[in-house]
Design brief:
The chain is an alpha+beta fold and 200 residues long. The chain has one domain. Helix content is 28%, strand content 28%. It contains one helix and eight strands.
């Protein structure tokens, strides 16, 4: 009686063939959807990044230009010359270059130098790029530095206009640019700068 064998009968169940086939079909559909959506999602993320990057570099440039424009005309002593001049490089759009002068090194005069101590700040548009020059006197010549990577960003408009309101002078800046890989992501900026050292 003690040696009696106890047997347990468990009913074993698994997936039927139809259930396996249905699960494979559903998995395949999900996998195909992921494969189809992944490139689209990646492209959208890349476009968003390009828009964000474009906005960052454009605002950095506008802040730099605004800083120099607000300081233009400042002199610690007696300076001679025109502190702000709008023109253009030959062959480029009208009013697409600006020369700003202020007493950067506080020596009481406006001087052109060949290094970072120059009192001259010149910004121009040239062949779809924005460039700066510190040791020049006009919008021509050599030694210009690109402000943006020309392989990534194309500038379609850089225009400047000086406006007088009452006894105050303002500089209006128009900037349009887009990523080279996505020309449809054109961004336009307009900035109005009070020229505090150049009142009428």
């Amino acid at each position: 009686m003690l040696n009696r064998r106890i047997s347990y009968r468990l009913k074993q169940q698994g997936f039927s063939l139809i259930e396996v086939l249905i699960s494979l079909i559903i998995s395949s559909i999900v996998f195909l959807a992921i494969i189809t959506l992944y490139p689209i999602l990646t492209q959208q993320i890349h476009r968003l990044y390009q828009t964000y990057h474009l906005d960052i570099v454009a605002r950095q440039f506008l802040l730099m230009l605004e800083k120099d424009a607000r300081r233009s005309g400042y002199c610690f002593g007696e300076c001679v010359g025109v502190a702000l001049k709008i023109s253009e490089k030959s062959g480029e759009a009208e009013h697409s270059c600006i020369r700003l002068i202020y007493d950067y090194n506080l020596d009481g005069k406006w001087e052109k130098a060949k290094d970072e101590t120059s009192d001259f700040f010149i910004y121009r548009m040239h062949r779809g790029m924005l460039e700066i020059h510190r040791s020049g006197i006009d919008c021509e010549g050599q030694g210009w530095i690109n402000l943006f990577d020309p392989k990534q960003i194309v500038v379609s408009q850089f225009a400047l206009k000086e406006v007088t309101m009452g006894n105050k002078r303002f500089l209006t800046v128009y900037l349009s640019l887009f990523p080279r890989t996505y020309p449809d992501l054109l961004r336009e900026y307009k900035l109005k700068i009070y020229l505090r050292n150049q009142s009428i």
